[in-house]
Amino acid sequence: MSINETVGRTPDETATTRTPFDLVLRGEQVLTSEGIAPREVGVRDGKIIAIEPLGAQLEGERVIEVAEDEVLLPGLVDTHVHVNEPGRTEWEGFESATKAAAAGGVTTIVDMPLNSIPPTVNLDALNIKREAASKNAYVNVGFWGGAVPGNKKDLRELHEAGVFGFKCFLLHSGVDEFPSLSVDEMEEDMAELASFDSLMIVHAEDSDIIDNSPQPSGAVYSGFLESRPRAAENTAIEQVIERARKTGVRAHVLHLSSSDALEMIRQAKAEGVKLTVETCPHYLTLLAEEIPDGATAYKCCPPIREDANRDLLWKGLEEGIIDCIVSDHSPSTVDLKDVENGDFGVAWGGVASLQLGLPLIWTEAKKRGISLEQVVSWMSVNPSKLAGLGNKAVIEAGRDADFAVFAPEETFEVDVENLHHKNPISPYQGKALHGLVRRSIIAGTDVDFQTPHGQLIRREN
């Protein structure tokens, strides 16, 4: 029992007496849909049952007193995580990934369909993935399906099995077992998904433009940046919008890095195209101008761009053009990042940041005068809406009792050796951050990093 946790029975209660709640959380700063205020939250059977003003003295089997410097938040929802198990578990597995998520206040992740072997492109592969996750999930885990050439017949079956939507690439995915779609193939699958109101999520970079750009090589970051020009993103996003408009499908643009695309996205949303957009902590906190030569930990696709571009992405978030901030946690082994040679043409492209997303974004948001409530909206409420998770992301009666206890003013320095990610490499090594997650709670049960209590979740009807 910690110093801020008490047992809520009086000595004269008998063993058969049942107090009203399994868990009560009390704090001066509790974030609900009405903002941050002093409140008490009563939990029973993994659900939020009651929310009352602080002082109501709700009774519980356990009582957690949230400290004065802490804010009780809804657990974050990260809809863009590459776990890679089975097949590439040495890159990341469900145990390490979900521990990292919990340590970062993320209580629900949705796993991407590639980098594992087999990729999640049919029902058999989904069942293999679920079996792997069922043994080691420290947070709630759901799954995206994949849309690849030749699996159109599998899409409805995967949808009915509970995947949250389907991911496709418009260029080589980085792994041969998950091939890309042409724009016409994407449209055909979009039409199929629209017939049962599913969601197409797209890695939007144009393969022709990238194939005709300078090929990346060497240790200088500017050379890699030139190999993934904004035009590749802009053109592909334009294609996604055009085909979503034509088919009526719900479409989502993954990991937006080019601010040039914001105006076309704004216009598409205004005219009623069913379009949502995400960006990631690395595009909002890192700058191309500051990436050292050979620092391949920074390599990701699409790439980290310039300072002015970053400012426009933040503006896009504040204006509601960009909906979500998610990690795109895409880890690999240290050797695949080619640290020894520092060659951006050879290194794996991906940033591992699942444990750090909230402090990264909060540190930058504080500088910009953006509230913690707004950050949680981008990192929990809106990703939850994207996946259709109506029982997550808000502290509200009837929702799941998933929480993060966050100390927004505490500072720490990133040390990759202290992260739960499987491989100790990060572009954030040594970075000083504001905000520390001190506790995560799943369905009313503390994450103790010893016993996995996460649930496998499915798309809600």
From TrEMBL:
GO cellular component: cytoplasm
Transmembrane region(s): none
GO biological process, one term: purine nucleobase catabolic process
Top-level enzyme category: hydrolase
Keyword vocabulary terms for this entry: Hydrolase, Metal-binding, Purine metabolism, Zinc
Chain ranges of the Amidohydrolase-related domain: 71-411
InterPro entries assigned to the protein according to its UniProt record, in alphabetical order: Allantoinase, Amidohydro-rel, DHOase/Allantoinase_Hydrolase, Metal-dep_hydrolase_composite, Metal_Hydrolase
Cofactor: Zn(2+)
EC number: 3.5.2.5
Molecular function as annotated in GO: allantoinase activity; cobalt ion binding; zinc ion binding
Pathway: Nitrogen metabolism; (S)-allantoin degradation; allantoate from (S)-allantoin: step 1/1
Oligomer status and interactors: Homotetramer.
Family: Belongs to the metallo-dependent hydrolases superfamily. Allantoinase family.
Name the record gives this protein: allantoinase
Lineage of source species: Bacteria, Bacillati, Actinomycetota, Actinomycetes, Micrococcales
